Amino acid sequence: PLTTATLTPSLTPSPTSGTPAGPGATPGPALPNLVPVSGSWWQPGQAASRWCVSPSGPPGGLSVCVVNDGSVASGPFALAADTAPGSVLASTGDLMPGETVCLLVDLPPDAGVVVDPAGAVAESSEHDNWFPPVPMPPGGAPRPTCEPTRTPDPGTPGTPGPTRTPGPLPDLTGWGWWWMDVGPFGCARPGDPQVWRSELTVVNWGDADAGAFRVAEQSSDTTLASIPDLPAGAIRRRDALRSPQPIRIDADDAVVEQDETNNLAYIPVPTQAPTCTPGPTPTPFPRPDVVVERAEVRGLGFDEVCVPELRPVQVYVRVANRGNGDAEGITVEADGYRTGWAIRRLRPGEHVDLQPVDPPVHWVRARPLQWDDPSNNSRRVPQVTLTPPPTCTVATPTATSTPIEPTVTPTATPGTARAFLPWAHQRR
What we know:
0% of the residues lie in helices and 33% in strands.
């Protein structure tokens, strides 16, 4: 059966919700923010963009991508399994603002990943460092083996190249693209400023880690990026590398590689986006933005000041939609495992408090069926010890009191969310 959970617009954000400070407030220090955004399993020998496997390729495992959506560089950080946060699985150096790195880790399929488990990086948010377990895909047809004696010649696809140097050695290569960002409209509106974006991807196809190297324009040798390291199978994506010239990866030949002929990357100059047809202003596509607004160990609900009777301390979770579109089919995970928590719909500005559960719970993540910003879907649950909350003095009902029977709304109405048992509860 279905019950109905009444939703309340988030008119007063909680102090932990990350809401910008009001006028006159002193801004905080500029900080990085490391957020794991995706994970996928790779076969041994497989590498990014390749549909073949190589005997001299990466070891395989779960490729976890982490983005720095903060305002300054991160400094070095590590990845660990949430089941063993003290054991480092992979590590890397500085991640610049807006840059993404994908690292291969070897861990059980039922384990999640924690970024910066030791807290070495001071971040603007410490609640979004966890990525849930990624199910291992079923085994399919084996991938073909890459041809080890043929290397594509940049600019002449399919041209035979020299035999690769025997490993273990890294193998650096990359590619890029450049485009005009027209936002959600799909066309360039007359009078709007032109926004151009680009991205360079650098990968290590080899079976050994690469140390620091430089990325520069081929002809002018102008430095475009300094990469601190690139482990085997790792990927780095960096923005703002617009260059009509070929880009040389490892411009100083600082890294001894399996193949030195595939270090040029080309970023094609894009064409102008089509102009919007004159007429009414196009309406941007609505998008949800589901966030775990609060996740705390408490002795009473978020909106309670006291409780009628003593009850055990539990974990309370509030999920909100900060976007401008409806969020549908939201599933909620606790410590990487699917729970009975599920939310049928959250309209813009609405939030719902989930049925509390017993501790310990360390991480909570909420994900809708539609695409939304993945950087704020999860929240760390601070592990604290609390004393029982104060109890209320309940007045004795008088003889003339008339009890009010609870009602159950059979269908969802504006301001409500239909939710699946066992977590849903009535709120008024």
